[in-house]
UniProtKB/TrEMBL annotation:
Belongs to the ROK (NagC/XylR) family. SUPFAM superfamilies: Actin-like ATPase domain. It comes from the Bacteria. InterPro entries: ATPase_NBD, ROK. This is ROK family protein. Pfam families: ROK.
Amino acid sequence: MVGLDIGATKVLGVATDGDGRVLAEVLTTTPLGADAVVAAAADVVTELRARTGHRLEGTVGVGIPGIVDVARGAVKHAVNLGVEEEWLPLADLLSVATGAPVVVDNDVNAAALGAAHVTGHQDLVYLSIGTGLAAASILDGRLRRGAHAAAGEIGHISVDPAGRPCRCGQVGCLEIAASGSAVAELWPATDVPPARALFDAAAAGDAKAVRVRDAFAARVADAVRLVALTVDPEVVLLGGGVAQVGEDLRVAVARALAVQATASPFLRSLELPSRLELVPSDVPVAAVGAALLGRVSP
C-alpha cells in the first residue's frame, strides 16, 4: 500500500505492508499549484516503487488539507498549496500519472486513521495543532467525515465575538489562539520551531514565556473540552506540528484542563487530563493513515 501526506511544505510518501508497517519513505518539498502538486506526488510514488523494487499497483491513498469530496476524489480550498480550482479532481489526475487507483481524504482524517492503527484506540479524537486547528474523530472504529466533509473544523468555531478576524471570514475563531500560527505570533523564533522555543523558555523560568505558554495551553484545553463534550471519546490525541514539543505540551494542557475543572464537579467527573495522549512521534501517522484509506473510503 502507498500513502501520501501532502502538506503545505512537504510531501511524505510511504510504502507499507498489509499490516501498515512502513517499508520505505520518500520526502520532498511541496510545490505550489495544482499541476506541480500532482507531478510531485507522482514522483514520490515512482521513487517508492524504485526503493521497494515493487510495482505497488494497489490503491494510492492521499491525505491533503482542504475540503475533500471522497467519493469524487476531489479537493477544494487547499489554498496553502496554491490550489485555486473550485474542485480539483486530484484522484483522477494522480491515477493517470501513476497508473494506480487513488483515493483522497482530508489530511487530518488520514492522520486519525493512522493514529488509531498505531495506538490501537478505536474511539478517539485526533486534535491537529498545526498552522491551524482541526480535529478528526474515529468513533467506535469508524471515521466520521460529516455530511459536508466538514466534521472536525473546530478551529473555526467563534469563541470571541469581539476578537480578531479569521481567514475564514468570521471573528474570534478558536484557532487564532490555539494553533501553531498563534504561538509563532506570540513567541517568534528563527533557529528552532516557535513552540519549542516557547516551552524551553518557560521551562527555564522566563516569566513572560510562562504566561504565554499557560495561556496557549488553556486555549488548547478549550479545544480538548469541546471535542470531549461533543463526542466523549475514549482518548484525545494531540498531534500536528506543535505536538513535536512532546510531553511538555501534554502536561501543560492537562494542567489547564485540571484548573478549568476546579469549580465544576461535572468536568472533574470526566477525568479529561487522564484521557489526553500524544500521537506517537516515531511513526508518520498521516502517511500511514493515507495508505489505509482504501480500506475505509466509499
